């Protein structure tokens, strides 16, 4: 009963050996082998571009005595880079069933199977003289990233207290940005970005995975998963005690109990069932639009094809590898700032402001490219790229991953993350495939399509996305209920008043 739960919930201070640092350490452990891998594996593919392309050409010559043309080598390289996105799409699709069956923490641990297998394929590809092994490796690493990008924000959002839910969930974006910087640094020619070490660079992602395997088992599972999905109240309370350092408010447990009552008897939703469920219609539309916009804004393509963009800005080849590190550092700094501001400013403002600023800087960048003949314009172009990434880190980079946790209940959340992840990875693949051709085809106007996407996204957020800052999950659900059933509630209320009036008349007569 609720009374028994409250009695059991009373903190036992002598046993509360761990303070709130447990939550911080849990976040670090999960993210090092989680979303950090996404940013890291995007960044490390920029440094060995020339070396792997030469390896592909040499392999064809040795096997079939064929000299590939430049466009053929570029096509194979584009497949190697973009296949990562298709692996991520597969990972996003299996993440939901895995979290339901194994839980959030165990799912992250099992996810390292894909990571270690991919690292092994990458490490041995050069000795085996097989570029196909690199493709297989990128698929497996993509699956790993797809699962972690869905499961980790869910794990954080369900484990954090309400007043820190946004900041803790946003730490996924901070570690993604840190992964980008780390990948750019490790990819320097002085470290692992040289011709003799590129296979070690591609396999270096195994190190964060080992750290997670050694540390994450010591931390608790998501309290909401333990109580709502597994019905294990003692495990839930023990997890809350550890994550809160023994000082847990009873109101937090009451909120989880309320969500358990609301979802009692309901099985986890499947992605296609969300399409026909009117109660989550606008939540689903919001997640699809914002998750798609996160990739269609073109920010991640800057990292994959950084050299293309900086060459358009007029930088020399020697400068590019060092300037690229600055882009990752810029997003990392912005994500930290967003983490500090999100609980004060709110999700809606951060998202809308980020997309608006990105649209403005994309327009300025286009103007700078058109006037590139002016001596100082290349520097303005470079500044626009940095401010573009800064604006992305301040809003869409982190807030997008928080939304499914806050606007869907426990039964619909895994399916919602599957939809969000699928849209994100599918659009990343599309942009990754077309971006080099977009640059060569549109040239100075290559950022105009991204400006349109950012402006449209900001407009949608301003019109249809309510603020979720500081609200309980039940309160957010009720707010979306009013949007999803707008008009129907008025009809229902008028019918109720009419029926009450009829009943009064009948009594009078």
TrEMBL record:
Keywords: Cell membrane, Membrane, Sugar transport, Transmembrane, Transmembrane helix, Transport. GO terms for biological process: D-glucose import; dehydroascorbic acid transport; fructose import across plasma membrane. One of its GO terms (molecular function) is fructose transmembrane transporter activity. It is a multi-pass membrane protein. The chain crosses the membrane at residues 21-40, 75-96, 108-128, 134-155, 167-186, 198-219, 320-342, 349-371, 377-403, 415-439, 445-465. GO terms for cellular component: sarcolemma. Pfam families: Sugar_tr. It comes from the Eukaryota. It catalyses: D-fructose(out) = D-fructose(in). Residues 27-469 form the Major facilitator superfamily (MFS) profile domain. It is found in: Cell membrane, Sarcolemma; Cell membrane. Belongs to the major facilitator superfamily. Sugar transporter (TC 2.A.1.1) family. Glucose transporter subfamily. This is Solute carrier family 2, facilitated glucose transporter member 5. It comes from Nothobranchius furzeri (Turquoise killifish).
